[in-house]
Amino acid sequence: MNLQGRSFLTLKDFTEEEILYLIDLAASYKEKKKRGIQVDNLRGKNVALIFEKTSTRTRCSFEVAAHDLGMGTTYLDPSGSQIGKKESIKDTARVLGSMFEGIEYRGYGQEIVEELAKYAGVPVWNGLTNEYHPTQMLADMLTIREHFGKLKGLKLAYMGDARYNMGNSYMICCAKLGMHFVACAPEKYFPNQKLVGECEKYAAESGGSITLTENAMVGTKDADIICTDVWVSMGEPDEVWEERIHDLSPYKVTKEIMENAGSRSIFLHCLPSFHDLGTRIGKEIHEKFGLTDMEVTDEVFESEQSLVFEEAENRMHTIKAVMAATLGADR
Ligand code: CP
Ligand code: NVA
C-alpha cells in the first residue's frame, strides 16, 4: 500500500483496503510504543498544526505523534496567525507548503481544508471540519477492532445530531467498512440526502447498510456500538442550545439504551462530553436549563461498557499512522 503524498481530508477519498491499512499501521505503532521501540524515521521533517477551533486530543495527538516520529511541530492557534483574516487560504497554503512537509487543519467549512490541500503541494490532514472528522474515525475503528476482533458486520448506532461532523463520518466509515450504521435522531437531524446516497453506494459494495430512524429503541436494539456526540458543536451559536436540548433529549444515551443494545455492547464518544456539568460551560447549562447531564448519563460514561479513554488514546496512534503513511515513513 502506498499512500505517500496523499492528503487525508475525508474517508470518502479512501478505499476499504486503504482505511484498514491505516488501522493496521496504527496498531503496529501502538504495539511498538508500548514495547518502548522508537520509530523516528521522519527526523528532520516539520509539520504545521493549524487550529481555528480549540482542541485537547487532536492537538496533543498530532504533537506527540510528530515528535515520536522525529518531526518538529509549529502550532498556529485560533487567533495567532493571519489565516483567513489578512491572508487567503490559497496564499497560506503556498507559504506553509514551502516550509513544512505536512499541514494539519482544524476549522470550519470542508471547502477550506480542500483549498489548503489543493495549493499546499504537501499532504494536508483534516483535524475536524464542520462536515467531517476522519482521524477520529480511525481511532474509533481501532478501538472497536481491539474490543471485538473485527469490524465487518458490526452494528453501530449513533444517537443525536447526525447531520454534523461525527454523524456524517460514522456513516461514511461504516459504509466503507461493511458495518451497519444506524442514525437515531429526529428527522431534521438526519444526514443530508446526497451524502446518504453516496454512502448507500459504498455500503452496497462493502456489505454494510445505512438506516435512519426516529425510534431510539428500535435503532439501538442489539447494536454492538452505541455512540454519541455533543448536542451543540464548536462554532455553533448559543441560541441553538434550547432547541437542541428539546429535540435531542429523547436521544440521550442512558442505561436503558445500553441494556437495549445488550451487555456485550460498548459505548464510544469522541469527547469532550457533557456527562459532567461541573465544567464552566456545563455549570452555565445546568443553571440555565436545570440539566444534570446531556448526551450521555454519567452512569453510562463511567460504566465498564464505556471505552472512551481507550478511544482517546487511540487518536495518537492513528494520527501517527496517517502522518507516517502519507509522508512515506511506513515503507
Ligand atoms: N475528539 C476530539 O477531536 O477532541 P478535541 O476537540 O479535544 O481535539
Ligand atoms: N461535533 C463536535 C466534535 C468535537 C470533537 C464539534 O464539532 O465540536
From TrEMBL:
Domain of life: Bacteria
Positions bound to carbamoyl phosphate: S55, T56, R57, T58, Q82, R106, H133, P134, T135, Q136, C270, L271, R315
Pfam families the record matches: OTCace, OTCace_N
Keyword set, alphabetical order: Cytoplasm, Transferase
Catalytic reactions on record: carbamoyl phosphate + L-ornithine = L-citrulline + phosphate + H(+)
Domain Aspartate/ornithine carbamoyltransferase Asp/Orn-binding positions: 152-325
A GO MF term: amino acid binding
Coiled coil regions in record: none
Main localization, broad class: cytoplasm
PROSITE patterns referenced in this protein's UniProt entry, alphabetically: CARBAMOYLTRANSFERASE
Protein location: Cytoplasm
Binding positions (L-ornithine): N165, D229, S233, M234
EC number(s) stated in the UniProt entry for this protein: 2.1.3.3
Chain ranges of the Aspartate/ornithine carbamoyltransferase carbamoyl-P binding domain: 6-146
BP-aspect Gene Ontology terms: citrulline biosynthetic process; L-arginine biosynthetic process via ornithine
GO terms for cellular component: cytoplasm
Similarity comment: family membership: Belongs to the aspartate/ornithine carbamoyltransferase superfamily. OTCase family.
PANTHER family: ORNITHINE CARBAMOYLTRANSFERASE, ORNITHINE CARBAMOYLTRANSFERASE, MITOCHONDRIAL
Protein task: Reversibly catalyzes the transfer of the carbamoyl group from carbamoyl phosphate (CP) to the N(epsilon) atom of ornithine (ORN) to produce L-citrulline.
Protein's UniProt name: Ornithine carbamoyltransferase
